[in-house]
Amino acid sequence: MKLPVFKIETREQAGGLVLALSGELDLAGAPELTAALNEAQSGGRALTLDLSELEFIDSSGLGALVRFNNAATAAGYEYSVIAGPPQVHRAFVLSGLDQALPFAASSARS
Amino acid sequence: MTREPSILLADDDDVGRYVIATMLRRSGFTVREVADGLSAVAAVLADPPDIAVLDVKMPGLDGFEACRRIKSHEDTRHIPVLMLSATFMETEAKVEGLETGADAYLTQPVEAPVLAATIRSMLRARSLEAEVRSAATEWRTTFDAISDAVAVLDPDGVVVRANPAFEAVFGSDAVGTRVEALEVGRSSGELELENRTHSVRVDVVPGSQRLVVTLSDVTAARRTERERAAALAREQTISRTLQQTLLPERLPSDERLAVHAWHLAAEQELIVGGDWYDVIETRNGVWLVIGDVAGHGVAAAAQAGQLRHSLRVYAHEGFGLAESVRRLNELVTDTELTDMATMCIVAITHDDDEVRVVSAGHPPPVLVPAAGPPRLAVEGHGVVLGVVGASYAESTFAFEAGDRLMLYTDGLVERPGELIDDAIDRLVTECATVDGLEALRAHVVERLVGDTHPRDDVALLLAQRCVL
After folding, report:
1. Any chain A CB within 8 A of the CB of B411?
2. Which terminus of chain B has a smaller tally of CB atoms within 10 A, N or C?
3. Per-residue pLDDT tens over the stretch B11-63
4. Which of A73, A74, A96 lies at the smallest CB-CB distance from B384?
5. Tens digit of pLDDT for each residue in B288-334?
6. Given CA atoms B374, B380, B386, B391 in this order, what sign does their dihedral have?
């Protein structure tokens, strides 16, 4: 059985960078995520944030994504997000972040 | 150990000695030869061999006496002795030989393989002994080096053995006595001695009735724990105090609109949430406000206070609902208040059944109509406060005489292992069965929170438009 420890896997894909998140993202994992996102942005390459293996996200996790989105928007840095499974994506829908974050069109679920 | 085992061989008969020495050398041993008992004892003392082979019958000091001397000297008693005698010697002599401390006894003529095998067997036994001796020394050294106080007690509680740390606590004469304080410590698991706290651990020695008692000094750890608990309690008090200031002292209920609010603090010590509610009186009605800052502790409570008071200012300056929320969002993103927040405002006017609502990522209010089943008051979700450039839109719904409205924070509907939508569905269903405001609040809290300690704060704000 896979333990729901939060993990970030970095992959190369079609000239861009994919950060694939898995496990449970909460207060404990948020700083690691913030660091990984900032590093990806400073590298300046296309970024896809893949939430499809994420099992849980709380408000700290959402907060980390919101702060990154604010910074990326201000810097004109474009990235996209692949939605997580229903229970994870529901947190984005309820907080209205499904409309505010750049979810890839094909991943829109609710 | 690749060195050949060394043997001291003593025999006064030159031929016999030559035969035995040759057998031994061929079997791979190093042999030193002497011709009498006195020389044997002297040679063993001067340069202890791995084993001594003594002929019984020698002039002057015979084999028995030589063996006795070797076995009685502190430095040589561990050296195994093999006695050799002629066939005619009787059992009695053999017994005497063994009683002088000899480790083995062979009668002549002895065959080479028997002699070699006997000696190898004696060497193996000796090396086992040496291992046991060295293990005992190691354990004793370890025992003495442990900084925890350790003692071995017999079944009556008498100290059989104690390490220096134990003697430092209970006195150097502790061995052989019963230490009363230990009896207390053994039952409670902890012992206070001269202002120091020791945790007491008791292990039974397997296969014996003896006990090993270990005392660890945990004074520093306990002090740290107390200080941490005190710091936690202080932060909690500050947060709770701050949170109290977030909640209005009185609610503006009147004959047109009844209002009831309730707040349940989370049980977890560190988690003081940023939940708040407010009822703001406007020219022709009220704004029902509920909100939740995502973080916890003093910072979240302070941020909630800032949002609450800013909204009051915007309302009094005449800004609309959506514009007020947009300004609150700017406050959050511009001033780096850092934590996201959700909130929902319902604007009720006294002379119009239509009410306006704006949600910033907050769980939707429940509308409980006077007639008909309860339902969620709004469908859409505006985005949480904290997203740069977010805008907010008002929507409207009918809120008629006798209708009730329930605003709440997510602590009410976030249960471990349950989808929040399922909990919200249950909440809506439960609202169908109870009249009034306070009774409805008590009912839904009982059904959704029950006896479980909520992991997060729960705030509820209910209103009913009265039938005039």
Report:
1. no
2. N
3. 999 999 999 999 999 999 999 999 999 999 999 999 999 999 999 888 888 89
4. A96
5. 999 988 876 777 888 888 899 999 999 999 999 999 999 999 988 88
6. negative
CA atoms within 13 Å, Cβ hemisphere of B65: 11
The dihedrals phi and psi of B159, each to the nearest 5 degrees, come to -75, 120
Host H or E run for residue B158: none
- Give whole-number Cα distances, B377 to B285, B372, B395, B408, in Å: 19, 13, 10, 12
- A contact test, residue of B303, B384, B409, B415 with most A CBs within 10 A: B384
Q: CA neighbours within 13 Å on the CB side: how many for B158?
A: 5
How far, in Å, CA of B53 to CA of B56, rounded? 10
Q: Which token pair is A84?
A: 């997580």
**What single-letter amino acid sits at A84?**
G
- The answer to ipTM > 0.90 is no
Domain contains A4:
no
Residues of chain B neighbouring A66 (CB-CB closer than 8 A): 340, 384, 386-387
* Displacement of CA A43 from its chain's centroid (Å): 17
Q: Least CA distance to A71: which residue of chain B? A: B388
B257-264: strand order across its sheet? B257-264, B458-465, B404-408, B366-368, B375-376
Q: In angstroms, what separates the C-alpha of B410 from chain A's closest C-alpha?
A: 11
Does A43 map to a domain?
yes
Would an 8 Å CB–CB cutoff place B454 in contact with chain A?
no
Identify the three-state secondary structure at position B463.
strand
Domain for residue A59, yes or no?
yes
For residue A73, which residues of chain B lie inside 8 Å, CB to CB?
Answer: 388-389
Q: Domain limits at B20?
A: 6-143
> What CATH number did the domain enclosing B29 receive?
3.40.50.2300
Amino acid at B187: S
Q: State how many domains chain A has.
A: 1
**And the tokens for B351?**
């002379």
CATH number for the domain spanning B186: value is: 3.30.450.20
Question: Do B174 and B288 reside in the same domain of the chain?
Answer: no
Q: Whole-angstrom Cα distance, residue A106 to residue A86? A: 14
> DSSP label at B365?
P
Q: Are residues B15 and B83 in the same domain?
A: yes
- Tell if the CB–CB gap between B388 and A95 is shorter than 8 Å: no
Mutate to test the interface with B, among A25, A26, A59, A67 (most CBs of B within 10 A): A59
Whether residues B331 and B399 fall in one domain: yes
Contacts of B342 in chain A (CB under 8 A): 95
